[in-house]
Amino acid sequence: MVNVNNLIKKVRKQPLIKNEKVIIKKKDATKEWFAFLRDEICKDFLALEKEFVKKNSVKPYANKPEPKFEKKRWNRQGGGGGTMSILRGELFEKVGINISTVFGEFSKEFRSQIPGAEKTGKFWASGISLVAHMGNPKIPAAHMNTRFLVTGEGKNKKFWFGGGCDLTPMVIDKKAKNIFHFGLKEMCNKHDKKYYNRFKLWCDDYFFLPHRNETRGVGGIFFDYLNNSNWEKDFLFIKDVGLSFNKIFKEIINERMNLKYTQKDKTLQLEKRGRYVEFNLLYDRGTIFGLKTGGNSEAILMSLPPNVSWI
Amino acid sequence: MVNVNNLIKKVRKQPLIKNEKVIIKKKDATKEWFAFLRDEICKDFLALEKEFVKKNSVKPYANKPEPKFEKKRWNRQGGGGGTMSILRGELFEKVGINISTVFGEFSKEFRSQIPGAEKTGKFWASGISLVAHMGNPKIPAAHMNTRFLVTGEGKNKKFWFGGGCDLTPMVIDKKAKNIFHFGLKEMCNKHDKKYYNRFKLWCDDYFFLPHRNETRGVGGIFFDYLNNSNWEKDFLFIKDVGLSFNKIFKEIINERMNLKYTQKDKTLQLEKRGRYVEFNLLYDRGTIFGLKTGGNSEAILMSLPPNVSWI
Fold it and tell me: Considering only A172-176, A178-182, B62-66, which range has the smallest mean pLDDT?
């Protein structure tokens, strides 16, 4: 397994920053990137949704409301805010994409856990987070998140990237798993031959429900505290995670959007979504941390599925 | 508000037990009581379900499978076990009643939180827990739990009762709230004139979702560490909580089971149930404690609603 403590130590050991303007540029560049990626994904998902509805809808297309992402701005008490974009459709039963840039001070109880924030608690974070719950149970649910964090003050700032993406099939489905992992491996290998294996294991370890003795899905990649002392290189990787996720997930959707499914598949999907809820509310660090540190609950809980059942 | 620390101190100060057999008798009596109460409630709820189906079902009653509580025994790794009884019907969309008697040792991280368990971690607990999710959104969801706890070893044992019951209306509904609270107040007053106000406030305080700034429902009563140095008196109160809950909730069901409702009411119900899930997985002490100490996850999560939605 990845030794997280070593990564945290490495982040803590980052040298003093010579010129603070460099950090401002990094912040601006990542923030802009997350907004650009959001726009790209929204455009592509919306095109898929329209294509699907045109072809499959019982009602004539002209009589239907045009599918669209509804956008909603939110502010964070304590500093910053973000924008949620939600599409509630037929192919995409519910897909939410949230971008946010938040800053402020961590409360004392959290400071020791966050490298660089030990003394003053100061932090700045920007990121994108996406969860897609599909209408057709033969298309897996998908999750993607990438983020850039800066902690500390003045020249004594620390920064790193985190993120990942993973797939949760609703009915057993090896093909989608293979497409997803093959694509991620190919992408990771372009950046570092060690990444895929390391981040795949980390993902398997993270998305696990001990009380059910079950994995949440079929994994993907997961990473945190990414800082190779080469910010440009790391940022290229972060960009590639977002773009490749979009490309691979669209491939999976295209390949499966017209598959027939039974009532049994649908029932299984609603049950499996229950496990998704259990994971997010019981274990997901981001969710629990966000809710307990005054985050915007609507934006945080946007990831919860539209329809769920516990039999 | 109730000063919980004072109650815990009082539990810790319990005198040494002169004769250990007295505790065995208490354990047997409570365990038997919880099983008896379960049988009573199952019988009454099943009669209501049958009455409803006979009157309202579209299909002829003779062609339907007979409504029944399905029973399932479960064992707890570490010691003890219980029985779940679940009815999945039309009036009762899903009602689960769980009785359990578990024992063993708390792990070191939990011991300091539990009076009497500080040294060896030894505990014994028996209880009944009920959650009813109703088909008709005009009937509130209901929760009831009573339990008896014994901690420590030899003559140095400590014991107390805990429990309560509360109502979660799905659509705004003052009448059910009034019936519920009036009934509970009348019952409490028979035992101690201070109980109702104290336990009502404790309930309001407990069933609150900070991240939504919402209460879970309209409350009821909630109490813990109940030990008035008169075990028989306390046990009578515990019995009365169970029996009165059954009586009052049946009254509410009878009064509302034939009310008409709209699709909008149903949608609201599914959304409101989402809050129920959020509370149970994010805040409920019993759920989190149970899942993290090797409890039976099927029995613990039996409380989750059959159908839920997050829009």
Answer: B62-66
pLDDT digits (tens, 9 = 90+) for A109-164: 888 888 888 888 999 999 999 999 999 999 999 999 999 999 999 899 999 999 99
The answer to the question of residue B309 being in a domain is no
DSSP state of B140: P
CA terminus-to-terminus distance, chain A:
36
Give the DSSP letter string of A127-178: EEEEEEEESSTTSPEEEEEEEEEEESSTT--EEEEEEEEEEE-SS--HHHHH
Q: Is the pLDDT of residue B61 over 70?
A: no
Give how far the C-alpha of residue A10 lies from the chain's centroid of Cα atoms, to the nearest Å.
24
Residue B120's CATH number: 3.40.1500.10
Q: Please say whether the beta carbons of A73 and A58 come within 8 A.
A: no
Q: Model's pTM, two decimal places?
A: 0.91
Interatomic CA distance for residues B302 and B306, integer angstroms = 9
Q: Are A204 and A215 in contact (CB under 8 A)?
A: yes
Q: How far apart are CA A152 and CA A2, in angstroms?
A: 25
pLDDT of residue B209: 94
Please tell me if residue B298 touches chain A, with a CB cutoff of 8 Å: no
In a domain, B311, yes or no: no
Which tens digits make up the pLDDT trace of B146-167? 999 999 998 999 999 999 999 9
CB A216 within 8 A of CB A209: yes
Query: pLDDT-derived band of residue A48, with 50, 70 and 90 as boundaries?
Result: very high
Interface contact B304, partner A, CB < 8 A = yes
In a domain, B308, yes or no: no
Choose the closest CB to A277 out of B210, B277, B306: B277
Q: Indicate yes or no: CB of B311 within 8 angstroms of CB of A308.
A: no
**Rounded CA gap, A287 and B108, in Å?**
27
Is residue B297 in a domain?
yes
Question: Domain span at residue B8?
Answer: 4-303
pLDDT of the residue at B59:
67
Does residue A258 belong to the interface with chain B, where contact is any CB pair within 8 Å? no
Q: Are B274 and A304 a contacting pair at CB < 8 A?
A: yes
Q: How far apart (Å, rounded) are the C-alpha atoms in residues A2 and B25?
A: 53
What's the gap between Cα B160 and its chain centre?
16
Select from B211, B212, B284 the residue whose CB has the most chain A CBs within 10 Å, as the one to mutate to test that interface. Answer: B211
Looking at the structure of chain B, the number of domains it has is: 1
User: Does the beta carbon of A104 lie under 8 angstroms from any beta carbon of chain B?
Assistant: no
Is B291 part of the contact surface with chain A (CB cutoff 8 Å)? yes
Here the ipTM equals 0.88
Contacts of A301 in chain B (CB under 8 A): 211, 278, 310
Q: DSSP label at B126?
A: E
Between A18 and A29, whose confidence is greater?
A29
- The confidence band for A60, taking pLDDT boundaries of 50, 70 and 90, is low
Clarify whether B181 is annotated catalytic. no
